[in-house]
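Consider the subject:
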Amino acid sequence: MQTASSKRSPTDRPQGEAAGPCAPAGRLAGRVHSVFARCCNIELSGHTLLLPLLDAGLAAQPHAWTLHLPEGSDCRDWFSPGTPVLLNERGLTVGTLYLPRPDTRLPEHAFRVPAHRCAIGRIAAHLPALSLAIERAAAVRPATEWHAAHPLLRGPRDAYRTALARPDSLPEATAALVGLGCGLTPAGDDLLCGSLAVLAWRAPALFARAASAIRPQLATTSRVSGDYLLLACQAMFSPLLAALLQALADGDGPQARHALTALLAHGSSSGLDTAIGVVDTLHALGVPAWLAA
C-alpha cells in the first residue's frame, strides 16, 4: 500500500467526497476485502454489506464512499487485500492511511425509483428507441461474453419474463437467474437489478415476491454482486438506473436516451444487462407490443 512516495507530498492522497445513505456508521473493525483499479471493497465485522470505496468517476452507490484519487494513481496504489481497517465516527483507517469521513451524505431519494407511476402508454412511446440502443449495444459485445442477450442465457431470461405474468412460477424462475454468468456481477444478477427496479416502481406485489426468492440465493453469487442484489431487494438502486426510470416517468424521451447511454457505459456489460432487465420487465408488465416493436 502506497501511503507516501518521493513523487507525492504527504497530503497528496485519497480524499472522501461523499457517502451513500447506506454507508456504515459507528465503530467497526475489519479488513480490505478486494481491490480493483477503481474500487476498494472494505469488509467490516458486524456489517452485512461491504463498504466500497469508489473512484469519483464511477456512479455513486447507496452503500459506498466516493473518493478523489490523486492524479496518476488508482486504488491499487493505496490499498491491498487483507490490510486491517478501523472505522469510527471521524473516518476510516486503512493500515497507515487515514481517510476522514466525507462531509457530504448523499440523499436516499437519488437511489430510489420514481414516486409516481404514469400511464404505461407514456412509457411505451419511448421504448422503441431504447430497445434499439440496447440491441445495438448487445450486437457489439464479444461472442464469448456471457451478457444477458447472449443465446446461452436466452432460456432462463425467457422463463423469467414469462413468469412475471404467471406469478406461481416466479420464485423458481427468479432463483435460476441469481449468479448466472461470469465476472464480479454475473449477467443474471444485473438483469434482476434492472427488473426489480421496474417492479418496485410499477408492480409492488411482484417486487415482493421476486425479492423473497432472491434473498435465500444470495450466497450462490459473488459477495460484491450479492450486496447489490440485497440492496435491490430493499428497493435501493444505482442512480444511473433510478435516473432512467425517472426520465420514463416524466415522459422525457431525450433525457431517457441520455440516461440509457450512461447506464450502458457502466462496467463491461453490467449496464447492458441491467437495461435488458428494465425493458424485459416493462414488456412483461403490459407495454403494448405494437408500440415497443
Notes: The CA atoms of residues 175 and 214 lie 6 Å apart. Confidence is low (pLDDT under 50) at residues 3-7, 289-293. The radius of gyration is 20 Å. Strands lie at 15-19, 28-36, 39-44, 51-55, 65-68, 84-87, 91-94, 97-100, 104-105.
